[in-house]
Design brief:
With 351 residues, this protein is α+β, with helices and mostly antiparallel strands. The protein contains 17 helices and 8 strands. Helix 1 runs antiparallel to helix 6 and helix 15 runs parallel beside helix 17. The termini are far apart.
Length: 351
């Protein structure tokens, strides 16, 4: 199988993946305890699916008992620009690097399927496979650490000595017995950069995340109004947050993304908040077709934009927020009212 493993790595690279490592489905004994602690403290917020599928997420062997090996793959999406520079422009919107072009779920899954078909062909059909990327109850980061892709840093994301923090993870479960790679050890040392940069204090301790305070969770997963205390800390981040990833010192080893569709669209690197606030549902869908941003819908997106307008300290943006005071979605209307009060005082006086 060593020859097959070498050919697999070469084929994975040809398909666009930058790293290929192998582990066993049961090589993550720490996951059940970590997950149970996370859920018991309510740190998953509104992500009820984490609790509902915890029996699978905490035990990859239960997800597909026939699987004997897990092929873990990493693909770089390293940005060509400084993702933190946009935070100095309060009239512009900060969008997470991974969402500035095509949806990685679609791109990575297509690569995984092609690689899986190749593996079936190479073994004359004597293997079964299942591919996963982010949307299934698979503990991808612990499996990535067990396989040697990287280690879970203090910000809980996977860090690689080869790719830094900027890479997507995909997995192929297979009934083949493939020789596992050595797990990666922790190389964070005494560094606290990712913990200290977090604007909302979402890390109660190193290697622990409280999603309820994480801007990525708040802008993407959280439904309804955001706590006013946290709104004021979100700045101009309207979709996701890259702060803890961007400051990681291991990014000096990051590789440029080979996939052109991960490179930022010019209109999404620094879009005007005022222009985004004018998008109706049809315009929102058209602008973000093929983008992960489309998944949160116009109302949640507009809520985030209005919070950013409220944080801008630029009274001229009040004009963009004003029409949304009468929005049929109560969360949008509340966000507009909050933004206007932040910029101009009592919003009702402007009606």
């Amino acid at each position: 199988m060593n020859g097959l493993k070498d050919r697999l790595a070469a084929q994975a690279y040809a398909e666009g993946f930058d790293l290929t490592r192998i582990c066993r489905p049961g090589d993550v004994p720490q996951v059940p305890d970590r997950l149970a602690t996370f859920l018991s403290k309510g740190r998953h917020g509104q992500m009820g699916w984490l609790a509902e599928r915890s029996h699978w997420r905490g035990n990859p062997e239960a997800l597909w008992p026939e699987a004997r090996s897990v092929i873990m793959l990493g693909e770089s999406y390293t940005p060509q620009h400084d993702p933190l520079e946009i935070l100095t422009h309060p009239d512009k919107a900060a969008i997470s690097v991974y969402a500035q072009n095509k949806d990685y779920h679609d791109l990575v899954k297509k690569r995984l399927k092609r690689l899986a078909r190749w593996l079936i062909s190479e073994t004359s059909g004597e293997t079964e496979v299942k591919v996963f990327v982010d949307t299934a109850p698979v503990p991808e980061k612990p499996l990535g650490e067990a396989a040697g892709l990287g280690w879970q840093g203090k910000h809980t994301n996977l860090v690689s000595r080869d790719l830094g923090s900027w890479f997507f993870i995909g997995s192929i479960f297979t009934t083949l017995e493939l020789a596992p790679d050595r797990p990666e050890s922790d190389h964070c040392g005494s560094c606290r950069a990712c913990l200290d940069v977090c604007p909302t204090g979402a890390f109660p301790a190193p290697y622990q995340l409280n999603a309820r305070r994480c801007i990525s969770y708040l802008t993407i997963e959280h439904h309804g109004p955001v706590d006013p205390e946290l709104r004021a800390l979100m700045g101009n981040r309207i979709y996701g947050c890259d702060d803890c990833l961007a400051v990681c010192p291991w990014n000096k080893f990051a590789r440029e993304a080979r996939e052109l569709r991960y490179r930022a669209r010019p209109d999404l690197t620094a879009p005007d908040l005022a222009e985004l606030a004018r998008l109706d549902d049809a315009a929102f869908r058209a602008k973000f077709s093929g983008s992960p941003i489309k998944r949160i819908g116009r109302n949640r997106f507009l809520r985030n934009v209005l919070y950013a307008i409220g944080n801008s300290a630029q009274p001229e943006l009040a004009e963009a927020a004003q029409p949304h005071l009468s929005d049929p979605d109560p969360t949008v209307a509340d966000a507009a009212d909050w933004a206007l009060k932040r910029l101009c005082g009592d919003a009702k006086e402007m009606e």
